[in-house]
Amino acid sequence: MASSSRGWNKFSESPLNPWLKKHLASVNIERPSPIQLQLIQAIMSPDGKRIRRNIFGCSPTGTGKTLSYVLPVLHFLTQDIRPYFALILAPTRELAYQIYQIITILTGSTSKDGSSTMIKTLLLIGGGKTGLPSNETELMGFWSGKPNIVVATPGKLAEQLTRKNFSDHTGHRSALRFDFLILDEADLLIGPTFANQLKTILDAIDEHGSGKTRQTLVLSATLTSALEQLQKIFSSDDEDSKPVTINLLPTIDEVKQQVSSNPNLDQRYIICPEAMKPAYLVQALSDIPFKQTIIFCSSTRQAVLLHKLMINLGFDEAEVSCHPVLLVGSKDQKGRLKSLEKFKSVKSRVMIATGGLAGRGLDLPQVDLVVQYNCPTNPVDYIHRVGRTCRKIDFEAGKTRTPIAASKYYGKSILFITQYDVDLLKTIENFVNIRLTEENQIDINNITNILKPVAIALKDAELSLIEEEQMNR
């Protein structure tokens, strides 16, 4: 594990470029998280010089992995401004867009020395406009502008690299000698889904030997057997060339302990008949105070239905001010990013999502209520979803290994239980070694009054969804 005691514990004391430290101070980021401190110190000497070591960094979602590599990349880039300096790959469009936003926030303001304004970043994710041209001619114009940093999903980048006219706009492929290759959520990137695309990318950027000098940073929130195998491939007999491993992942026992002992995490359940779940959910959202909530559904269809139900019941109206958004894979890319942006800016207070899209990489720190509309069959899924609240970490208190170690931030989790889920509830309780408390803040007596309007709104939602499904066949 990399050392974390090399002379600085505040960004103001770090060897980072002054304009970066100024930007961090302007957004009240004073102290690095453990992954930020250890990764930066692993590749940057106390006097700001580069240490060329490959890095394997594992840390839970929400602990600041993006800044851990963006800051040193920007620092070294300003010392050597040139095209195609860093390539950042992410498995999902949402995560790639989030990384792109962080970079543009840090580089977007004008500084007197001009450092930040000289940096060009290209986002390649496809699927509609996201702040860059989607028109192919305009996109090639971006390539010909020779960006310093490219943030991409593997599919879109591989498509661009294999285009017949690609070299016409960028010059010979030798131009793509990236100094940094960063794999974010690498456990997903090196899986079978992206294997062919990743090979295409590596073949293209290594065509003229850049792989021998390139520095690779591998980041993940999960340590898988595939990542361990990748570590062996990068390993070297030369002690000075061995990759640095930074493993801040909690063990499953540590996570279970955090879930069971965190006094700021209120874990509850609502038990109700399956047919009455929509009415109970509506009543719960009306009675339980929250800033933002994520409602996890087991399927895309169910998430779409609940979203339509809430719109039909007026949750999007000004007096309710919930403005629910939908984050599911079937939604087009422009719609997904619009939903995510609306939720992250707190213009929406309710996100309805499937576990996959809302579960990895996304930074949503304002969530103080997690609703699991379906009882997960795997207790580990319960833990990961519960971990979506209490996301702020008390680094100064030394609680560094899991995102639900906060001491100042409170959250509530509600698990919906039907007559078919009692055994699953017992399994979850035994796994985390606590007994969940039945939710007592909802007006049970009023549920009978809203059953009819909820049923009508749900029927309208089902008819609307069926019509959409038929149109898309």
TrEMBL record:
Name of the protein in question: ATP-dependent RNA helicase
Domain spans labelled Helicase C-terminal: 280-448
Catalyzed reaction equations: ATP + H2O = ADP + phosphate + H(+)
Annotated function: RNA helicase.
A molecular function GO annotation: RNA helicase activity
Presence of keyword Nucleotide-binding: yes
InterPro entries documented for this protein: DEAD/DEAH_box_helicase_dom (IPR011545), Helicase_ATP-bd (IPR014001), Helicase_C-like (IPR001650), P-loop_NTPase (IPR027417), RNA_helicase_DEAD_Q_motif (IPR014014)
Domain of life according to the entry: Eukaryota
Free-text note regarding domains: The Q motif is unique to and characteristic of the DEAD box family of RNA helicases and controls ATP binding and hydrolysis.
SMART domains tied to this protein: DEXDc, HELICc
Ranges of residues in domain DEAD-box RNA helicase Q: 9-37
Enzyme Commission number(s) of this protein: 3.6.4.13
A Pfam family reported for this protein in Swiss-Prot or TrEMBL: Helicase_C
Originating organism: Aceria tosichella (wheat curl mite)
Q motif, short sequence motif: residues: 9-37
